[in-house]
Amino acid sequence: MSQPIIFVSASKLTKSPSNVRKMSDPEADAQLEASIVARGVIQNLIGLPVTRKKGHYRITAGGRRLDAVHRAIEKGDLAADTELPVMVVAEANDAIEISLSENFFKLSMSPADACRAFQDIIETEKKTPADIAKRFGLTERFVLGRLRLANLAEPVFEALREGEITLDVAMAYASTSDTARQASVFEQLGQGYYRSNLSEIRRQLASGGYRGSDPKALLVGREAYVASGGRIDADLFSDVESEMWIDGDILDHLAEEKLTAAAEAIRTREGYAQIRAVPASHIPYTETYSLRHVDGELPPLTAEQEARCEAIQSEIEAIGETADDEDGEGYTADDEARVQALEAEYEAIQNRVPILTDEQKASSLAYVVIGRDGQPRVHEQLYVAPVEEPAGDDEGIGIDGGDDQDGEDAQADAASRPAHSQRLIDELAMMKTEMLAVHVASDPRFALDLGTFIMADAATRLYGGMELASDLRARVPSPRVSNFESGTQAAEEWARIEGSLDRSWCDHDDVRMRYDAFCALPEEAIAAWLGWAVARTIDAVPAGATGSAFIDHLGTKLDIDVAAWWRPTARNYFDRITKPAILDLFDEVGGGELRQRYGASKKHDLAASAEKLFAGDILVESDIKERALAWLPDAMRFAPLDAADSTDLASDDNATDAPSSEPELKTGPGVKAEPNPADEDDSDPIAAAA
């Protein structure tokens, strides 16, 4: 049965006590009021006639709408004679039932639908988020947030629409505007345990980026990051501290550069033998586990401190005697509090900070890390600075065997080297290993010997496996620097080697068919697979770490010409060290005149000039050019065995050179020359072929 709808002045309408909705939400009421001011009352009210007051009605359904109209009239947003549509019912029971039905069966709008509705208004009516916020009584931030949800990756948005994820989960995905990244993480989490874990979702979305509150971000600063081309993903659901800095590589580079400069200044000021910058809040265990601690000496107590400690002990004894007195009350609450305070004061006096002498600092290795506040700080633990043994024979060592002077010279050399950040050390190790892997992959016989040795050695030893610097199962070791691409000649050659592998056998689903197809490959194709499989297991080990000696030994046996494969550039080296360190290198290869010539250059220009100088692209004297082209950081050298070890292995080398009765394996595709270290030509044949 249809009921008549009439228009009644708001002044003649009052809310009925029998209205079923008793509770409301002030924020929602404000939004409703804004909507009514903008569009009027869209849905009619339901009311009963008031007895003996003709033309007046009590509203049993629509009380919130009526209250919103009355508030708007009081504020002057609506005219006093504003009329509202009212459906008039005769029976009070009917009015209550209709009111209940209207509220009980009301379906709240899906957040997904609301997002798309806001988006449609902007596109069709050409409105701004501020216009929408005013119309619906919302904040502009709220509207912008819903609009961002409307731009979620399609799988995520559909899950929100279907109720498969909550609004909070959708907001977590909206913490980045990268829809491809959203879809990837959503698919990765799938129906797993962490699919609704907001922290895990944000953590995976942030992989490769940093929050604004990260110590690296605090160290670099927002202005410097943006000036260097860094992008910030404005997160409408978070503040400045939790916004996402998405160009992690730019921030890493800036943080490393700034921390390295700070470390160099600290070394100069404090007099440490060596210093290393670690752009993190802590030092990895693998970085220091093989180093020895440097422990300072506790300073003696001052006369005032000794007197205070004696006074504390006397007072504690006096309190104890009073408590033990037969007529006493024992320890009172005040006594216990006083004793605790005295003990804490005594402990604070005794816990002195160890002091290092200047001599200890001069032989120490210090680490500079980033504090939680973004400030560079010296890690509290110092270590004995490792001293590299000089290569070559025993010349210069006296008859008495004393080499103290050599040791002092080595420490002086170490102190004069530029400070390297931990990331640069790791990247140099990875680029060095790229060269080694290319040479191993290009020499199947060498790869066969190396692979067989690693497996046999690992099977016959219970300990010491890390010395091999390999995990032979053809698994790639975890990279020391994630997503690192060196762009070097060795990286290009490795890509060529991988691209030239015969993969025709990989297409079979059955492992037996794959094996038979693999065995049917030409001998040179199988040899290429052998070299590739062994080479990819080699780990990137920084110089001086466990396993680096074996890496250097392999590079020496393969006679790798590092200078032909790798040259320092602004990107991979000079941008990563300080300006004084670059000028020291100019002095080293060209003398004071060359240093003075470039001394006034800005850091960026100096790094570019250094790249050209050490690539042989600057017109300088022939001897300077020769030294520059031969120069390498120590971390990139395959250091030869020292004299003692060479003597020990002389018999092994002779055995290696003996003729072999085994059939000769062919080299892999693309190799133009025999990779024999004993070849008459001292140049690197693989570098020449590449």
From TrEMBL:
Stretches with biased composition (Acidic residues): 390-411
Domain ParB-like N-terminal residue range list: 6-104
Keyword annotations: Coiled coil
GO cellular component: chromosome
Pfam families membership: HTH_ParB (PF17762), ParB_N (PF02195)
Transmembrane segments: none
Stated name of the protein: Chromosome partitioning protein, ParB family
Organism: Novosphingobium pentaromativorans US6-1
